[in-house]
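One thing: mind reviewing this one?
=====
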Amino acid sequence: MGGLDKGRKEGKKEGRKEERKENNERKKERNKEERKKYRRKVYNEGKRKKERKKERKKERKKERKKERKKERKKEVWSQSEKQVKRKRAVKEMIKME
């Protein structure tokens, strides 16, 4: 009887070993897939971050361009205003004479 039990125990041990091996293989595969997903996720996040940064940079550039344009318009306006004033002054000087 003792010999039979021993054989059965050995069989159980072997079965468990095989089961553990299979479980470990599945776990490795699952981990591999999860790491792949995670890497892809991180990569995509970085890509999106770069895109947003580029967009913000473009927006700031546009804003600065608009501001410079406004400044130039103001300068031109003030210069033309000065010219008009000078012309008026010259006309008045001529009238006075």
Notes: The helical segments are 2-96. The mean pLDDT is 88.
